[in-house]
């Protein structure tokens, strides 16, 4: 099904592509991967494993996600692909006038204004109810154990924790932020790499969510605590917002690329940006990966795709154009004509009318899961509900305050969302889940991973290890320190403003699991993180 060299990795890291046939769990943190694998060994399926790993990541990688964040998932089960959107809306009490009266010209990063209804706990319960095999209490047990008993902080997590602590210590002085420091820096500092860290509050909250199938979070004792904390500090989130929330089952969207279907969750997520770029790029032939033309076309297509995405993607009820029109071959052809030999300044077109964690799982029965969850910008809003370990996310930061913009803040409206799971199929059969976490890098990572796989025939680990680039704004492009220097020089002569970076974290962290024609699972995990693959 996939044509890749199983032996050679031209971008060799300390990792190699991993193979298994009974099950596989690929995550950014080893303990979370092992949590998912332990559930598989107990008789659970890929969905159970995904939940176990996701919940565990809220404990062992709190720098990127938490109980108070959002989630999305693509699930392959019994010959069909399902999509789950577990992102939450703005509170009913929050509106544009409040921001304007406060003198805000854009949504803030910290505090109550960017807090939207958390969706992650609903995702765990919904996935378990529809597809899971084991009780949620058993699936969440590994995470609860680590929260209660502690775990040694891994290297990437430790570095991110220290950076977040330094920033929060400088920026967050108000009383409402005190609980964050009590929870995540109880000794007045971030925990060190290798140091044992535990969060009994987190453990109790997870136990309650497991026992009540998340009802305590949305309509019970936890909801009451969130409501009280919000009211006490002048926030807008209320228990009525939590009680009214339900995750949504959605129809995944796709395009055909090189004979494969590339699948994404539809808006309000920006997986559409990856599909827009690939739809443009499929009109070019790519014979050599490390060439100036290859990178130039990719960058230009991504700039055009983002220009459209940032203009049109919003809560689906607020979008002014249809997804089908944006993904039409006719529109892709028109956008493709704009790409020439020089770097362009991206502008949105007019289509015809008509801090995140990612994980992948697979089992021996054919089930596969592409799952992503996030608090956004590391720990999120800086607000932790006292006595719960719940760090509330700040996803509302992506709302626009322009009343004429499709993504303008409204009560009960979902914001433009950056976290996206991906999935690949061919001839209506699953190839597998893939994803690259990291804010606005995510669709760019998706495009690069897919092209590395389908155009350049790299195996999963090589597809992840390859040097990455990212469009930042205008004609500015960030490139990793390992990016070919001679190509960067030629790109600069084409008008691209090249920024070199030693910060590999800003270029995303991904996971891949492909199922081969021989029904063998081939997995790759991120060399830019503490990535790990549990296999059986």
From TrEMBL:
Keyword Transferase assigned = yes
Q: Does the keyword Heme apply?
A: no
Q: Which domain of life is it from?
A: Bacteria
Q: Which GO terms describe its molecular function?
A: transferase activity
Q: What is this protein called?
A: Gamma-glutamyltransferase
Q: Which SUPFAM superfamilies match?
A: N-terminal nucleophile aminohydrolases (Ntn hydrolases)
Q: What Pfam families does this protein's entry cite? A: G_glu_transpept
* InterPro entries membership: GGT-like_enzyme, GGT_ssub_C, Ntn_hydrolases_N
Q: Which PANTHER family match?
A: GAMMA-GLUTAMYLTRANSPEPTIDASE (AFU_ORTHOLOGUE AFUA_4G13580)
Q: Enumerate the UniProt keywords alphabetically.
A: Transferase
The species is Desulfosporosinus orientis (strain ATCC 19365 / DSM 765 / NCIMB 8382 / VKM B-1628 / Singapore I)
